[in-house]
């Protein structure tokens, strides 16, 4: 049986989330770079077949393609439930962990993804950066308030869960857009703690085969 394939880009927030999940579950996979800044790369037939929307990540397992980061992570959780469970056993905490993950993946990150910023910058130079900074601060403030209710050692209670997986990438993005993340003490604490976990550290953009690929 061939290894699963992850179509990824080093600085993609969505891909980063999946890389963490794959590492935590100790799944060996084939990393396929998709340069999001190259029109030619986005039109590669193999990639378009894996994800007709031409976005990363796309995860191919046994010939079947799954897209969207949280869908991939839930798929991995269901296929490998005993390998580092990412959903808490407690029902309420399970819902809270999903809520944290969705606040990042659906509420914050889409507003400052590459497609949106390209469109805004085409309308007015510099508009994209201002837009991203505004919505990052707004969304992280909401997330901080949510974590006041749910966090323990990690985002929900004292075990790493699906709620933690998006935190490193969203704070990385915030820093790229010059957001002072010290105004979010819980998020900053969690980000530091997660960075000390080997599987999280290995998923960092700078550790990927295509690190610093910008053209």
UniProtKB/TrEMBL annotation:
One of its GO terms (molecular function) is glutathione transferase activity. PROSITE patterns: GST_CTER (PS50405), GST_NTER (PS50404). It catalyses: 4-maleylacetoacetate = 4-fumarylacetoacetate. The keyword Transmembrane helix does not apply. Residues 2-84 form the GST N-terminal domain. Its EC number is 5.2.1.2. Pathway: Amino-acid degradation; L-phenylalanine degradation; acetoacetate and fumarate from L-phenylalanine: step 5/6. Belongs to the GST superfamily. Zeta family. NCBIfam families: maiA (TIGR01262). PANTHER family: MALEYLACETOACETATE ISOMERASE (PTHR42673). This is maleylacetoacetate isomerase.
């Amino acid at each position: 049986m061939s290894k699963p394939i992850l179509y990824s880009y080093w600085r993609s927030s969505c891909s980063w989330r999946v890389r963490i999940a794959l590492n935590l579950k100790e799944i060996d996979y084939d990393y396929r770079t998709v340069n999001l800044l190259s029109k030619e790369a986005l039109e590669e037939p193999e990639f378009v077949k894996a994800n007709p929307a031409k976005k990363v990540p796309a995860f191919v397992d046994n010939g079947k393609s799954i897209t969207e980061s949280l869908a991939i992570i839930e798929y991995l959780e269901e296929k490998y439930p005993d390998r580092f469970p990412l959903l808490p056993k407690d029902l309420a905490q399970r819902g809270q962990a999903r809520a944290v993950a969705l606040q990042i993946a659906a509420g914050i990150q889409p507003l400052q993804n590459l497609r949106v910023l390209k469109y805004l910058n085409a309308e007015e130079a510099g508009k994209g950066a201002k837009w991203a900074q505004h919505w990052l601060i707004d969304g992280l403030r909401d997330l901080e308030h949510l974590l006041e209710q749910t966090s323990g050692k990690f985002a929900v209670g004292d075990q790493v869960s699906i709620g933690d997986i998006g935190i490193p990438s969203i704070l990385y993005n915030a820093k790229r857009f010059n957001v002072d993340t010290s105004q979010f003490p819980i998020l900053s604490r969690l980000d530091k703690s997660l960075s000390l976990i080997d599987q999280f550290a290995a998923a960092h953009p700078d550790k990927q085969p295509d690190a610093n690929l910008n053209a």
